[in-house]
């Protein structure tokens, strides 16, 4: 019996040793498998690098975008008030006709006639004429071409004044006032909010003041539009002066001789005016002086 128990114990120990040996082999094989297995592909690293490159490219685009947007950005529109002053010469007998033709040409174009004047020639003064207009830039060449067809341009001056800041400021005020006016109107139409009569009257008064400011600013914008949308052209017509006559040079002495009669008449008229102005004072001054001389003469005369 004891011998049988020892045999069972021996077989149990052997079986336990075999199981442990098999477990150790499996563990060694798993370690060897893990050691011999190739490392997992490092795919995430390239993806991380690609993500970093993409982020870098995105930063470049973000940095370059403003510059690209700045290059593609529409340049600021400038508002210029252009003015042209011209002086032209016309034969004296054709001055009125030339002035009339240019004025009629202005009426046929996109042109606003601001003022016009005509002074016809008289024996005492030469004739002259002026035109003041506002013309669209597209019709300026047509007007100047018609002017050159009837006269000789002797002077042409062009000036411009930048009105950009004024236009931007006025347009900004119009936008702000319009939004404020609309908000006040919404407040008046709002029936959900309870307001007192004093509040409603205050809103109405503010709305009226805002509308008045908006109308004044809109008028100012129209004035600026007239100055910038059209060019102002002023033309001075003068008669031609002949500096030569019969092949001889112009002589101031001949001009003086021709005007001698008028100068003499003016001098005589000035003398008559002077005498008429001084004569009353002479009477008032001479009579007392004569009386004083007489009194002194009597006192100095020896008595008989």
From TrEMBL:
InterPro entries: DUF4349 (IPR025645). PROSITE patterns: PROKAR_LIPOPROTEIN (PS51257). Residues 31-53 are annotated as: Disordered. Residues 78-293 form the DUF4349 domain. The chain crosses the membrane at residues 268-293. Keywords: Membrane, Signal, Transmembrane, Transmembrane helix. It holds the Pfam family DUF4349. Residues 1-23 form the signal peptide. This is DUF4349 domain-containing protein. It comes from Variovorax guangxiensis.
């Amino acid at each position: 019996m004891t011998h049988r128990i020892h045999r069972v114990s021996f077989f149990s120990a052997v079986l336990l040793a075999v199981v442990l040996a098999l477990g150790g082999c499996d563990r060694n094989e798993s370690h060897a498998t893990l050691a011999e297995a190739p490392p997992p592909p490092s795919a995430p690293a390239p993806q991380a690098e690609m993500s970093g490159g993409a982020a870098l490219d995105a930063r470049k685009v973000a940095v370059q975008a403003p510059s690209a947007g700045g290059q593609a950005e529409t340049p600021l529109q400038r508002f210029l008030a252009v003015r042209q002053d011209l002086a032209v010469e016309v034969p004296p007998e054709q001055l009125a006709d030339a002035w009339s033709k240019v004025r009629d040409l202005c009426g046929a174009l996109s042109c606003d006639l601001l003022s016009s004047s005509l002074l016809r020639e008289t024996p005492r003064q030469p004739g002259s004429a002026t035109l003041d207009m506002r013309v669209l830039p597209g019709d300026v060449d047509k007007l100047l071409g018609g002017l050159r067809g009837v006269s000789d341009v002797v002077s042409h001056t062009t000036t411009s004044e930048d009105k950009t800041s004024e236009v931007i400021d006025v347009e900004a005020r119009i936008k702000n006032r319009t939004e404020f006016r609309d908000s006040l109107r919404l407040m008046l139409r709002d029936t959900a909010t309870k307001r007192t009569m004093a509040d409603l009257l205050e809103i109405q008064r503010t709305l009226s003041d805002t509308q008045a400011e908006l109308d004044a600013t809109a008028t100012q914008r129209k004035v600026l539009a007239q100055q910038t949308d059209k060019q102002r052209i002023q033309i001075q017509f003068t008669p031609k002066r002949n500096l030569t006559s019969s092949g001889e040079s112009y002589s101031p002495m001949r001009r003086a001789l021709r005007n001698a009669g008028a100068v003499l008449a003016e001098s005589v008229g000035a003398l008559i005016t002077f005498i008429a102005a001084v004569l009353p004072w002479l009477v008032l001054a001479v009579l007392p002086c004569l009386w004083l001389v007489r009194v002194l003469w009597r006192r100095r005369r020896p008595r008989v």
